[in-house]
Amino acid sequence: MSQQTPNWASEARWKKIAIWVTAGSFVLLIFLTFDTLSKTSVGGERVRAYSVINQEIDYRFDAQKNRFMPVIGKEAPLFGKVVTEAEAEQLVTLGKKTVQSKNCMNCHTLLGNGAYYAPDLTKAWLDPNWIDAANRENLMLAFLKDPVGNARANASGRKMPNLGITDEEAHGIVAFLKWMSAIDTNGFPNNFKTINAKEQP
Amino acid sequence: MSAILSNVSGKVTSLFAFTESPHLNGGQKLASKYFTVAMVLFLAQLLFGLLAAIQFIWPNFLFGWLDFSVNRMVHTNAMVVWLLYGFLGSVYWFLEEESGTEIVGLKLGVIGFYVLTIAVTLVVLVYLLIQTGPGKDASIWFINEGREYIEAPRWADIGIVVVILVFFYNVAATFAKGRWSGVSGVLTLDLIALAGLYTAGMFYLTNITADQYWWWWVIHLWVEATWEVLVGCIMAWSLMHLLGARRKIVQTWLYIEVALMFGSGILGLGHHYFWIGTPDYWFSIGGFFSALEPIPLVAMVVHSVYDAGVHKFKATNHPAMAWIIAHTFGNFIGAGVWGFMQTLPQINLYTHGTQWSASHGHIAFFGAYATINIAFFYMAVQKWRGNVWMSGDLPGNGWKWKWSVGLLNFGVLGMTVALLIAGYEQAFIERAMQGSTWDAYFAAQSHPWFREAMVWRTVFGLVTIGGLGLLIWDLMTIGKDESRPSLVLTHEE
Ligand code: HEM
Ligand code: HEM
Ligand SMILES: [Fe+2]
Fold it and tell me: What is the domain extent for residue A21?
């Protein structure tokens, strides 16, 4: 192999290309990151204010966008009490910290990320399994505090273990789940029939 | 008290006394320590994976004692840590040869190793014995952060960063004192990015969309950008070492790979931003750039096969060469093909967060990263034994290494196919037909096709563990009674 290396295959040229491509991609990513973070801050169109837990939330097919979208409805305070934005944030924060401390993500997925041993929690608040809107809050609280005793039977035989979740923490988790169900996830999951769809077909 | 302490530390260091081989330089002795712990964690990874797999079949198994969440977390965390141990070790291994000088802060490096290993032990003990805490910051700081792959509590995150800084200092300062090369330049810059990215996962956010946005910076920009380039550097060095490949060719390839890998992988990050609340322009950006990610992986296959062919497969270390080939194909199939299969948003809407992801996760991590580490362990053992013969004509025709290559690859491939079948079933029944409710989820999980797939995954898991047992045995015995010196390559500089 004695012939000269052609110019396009030279080490120096590829070194330059590598540097420019990397730098260019990274700069673009930074730019997109600023844009995305500003569009997903709490209180915007995509990620709602924490006080959205004061309202009715649904998830329906939007004919114009041709995908499923969260729908924020009339007032429907969580646990029967209207909360301020600060109180709501405190409650959702307690829920999020409990979700992390109890390691929910190593059985469940949240927004589709996590483990695959138990159902996705993205729209858990809207799941028809909670029977109807009147029963839902109490069923959820009871289940979280004692998942073995209040197991919702399923054919796989899997059960959620008792994680020592307190009453206060359970309230936080329910608030977190309600808030999360209002996030605009670009139509994921698709074709999800909510608890409300079951009530008013 | 101090007597007890020095007694204990004496016992611990004597565990690693065998790394004090006269055939190794300082960095290589330190690397051998890293490799030893890596193998122990590899075994732990598979055993906990097996427990989790059994729980899919018999959900009552260890219920309330070692729940699925605990086993799975130990499984994936042991994997991340042993792969990182292998990488740190590999870099320490070739640092002195590549820089032409002694490691600047070797003592500090050794202390770093012990500190890291003690921290890892403590974290695992807390995972197993304490498991979960109340919904307070203290739990996130001292028990478990609850975010997949980077569950390590915050105190450990900080410890990891400090040890990585020591490692980084050793790498950069040693090259600066000795000499720089193309490989070492790429390696050093890549390590800055790798360590910097870890800090993107080190803060708490209630906004789960922003939380997962940064979480993916660590996970994706590690495995699909900085880790790929790191193993590119390790590969470059290995090919020169194993085959006598020319530095100029290897380094040109390395630059090509960096350009293609970073050029596709950095913005390919967008394939995780389809459904977490982020804007829908990520559909096009993530879909387009991640679809290009297989290209550098094809380039790597071409590169290694070409190099091996040019050198007529005359290698100084046959088991290592076999694992290098397994690495290039595994990387291409696991990351390139299995990743590509689910990377377009039109497909990902239905496969996101199903057993498809688990199928891809297994073949990608094994194919791309476990393989190259195993190749390096063989190179290390060869030198540790006194640079003995490790090409063809090994005692017993090298049956142990050949069977362990076969069993490990066949086992992981079998698990991958079983999980893919489960993933198809789940995507169709739970997602496409029944709309992803709890009932839909359990309908899919209880379907006979799913159940059978879980049994096959466990069977192939046992095959994998058999392969690992053989690998450990082989690494402990290969070259033991060997008197022939290693094959000498005719270098064509
Ligand atoms: C060696 C490199 C790679 C490794 C180790 C790897 C590993 C993984 C793992 C473990 C996950 C699951 C993450 C979770 O737990 O949620 C994942 C997800 C994913 N990977 Fe990779 N991957 C690699 C390369 C690639 C490439 C090159 C592509 C595309 C061409 C790709 C496409 C994807 C996609 C689309 C997902 C998301 C799956 C979902 O929506 O659930 N990966 N990867
Ligand atoms: C004895 C062999 C193994 C068994 C039985 C096993 C079992 C499992 C199980 C049950 C899970 C949880 C999946 C879920 O949430 O549904 C898992 C996850 C995972 N395992 Fe393994 N595993 C084995 C070997 C490996 C190997 C060799 C690797 C890579 C080197 C690996 C990497 C992973 C990864 C990355 C995940 C997370 C996947 C995701 O989140 O998408 N495992 N494994
Ligand atoms: Fe990715």
Answer: 10-39
